[in-house]
Amino acid sequence: MGSTILIGVLLLFAVCSHASITPCRLPSFELNPTSPTNAKQFPRLDNVTDDMTVDDAERMNRDWSVNDAKYMVASTCQYEGERIPYGWCRHKGLKASGKYKLAFIGNSYVSNHATMLYQECADKANSMLQGSAYGCEPLYPSDKDPECIANFTDFEVHIRDEKPDYAFILTRYISIGDPFPAGVTTFDEDPIYQTMKEQMLKFISNIKYKLYIMDAFPRVNQPMVHQIGRLMKEKEDPVKIDKEQRHPTKDKYTKMNGKLFAGKIPDQLQISEMMKKSGKKSVELLKIDIEGGEFTGLEPFIKEYPVCQIFVEIHGTPAKHLEMLQTIAKYKFRIFNVDLNPFCRHCCEYSFINEKCMEQFDVTPLDIMIP
Question: pTM of the prediction?
Answer without folding.
Answer: 0.60
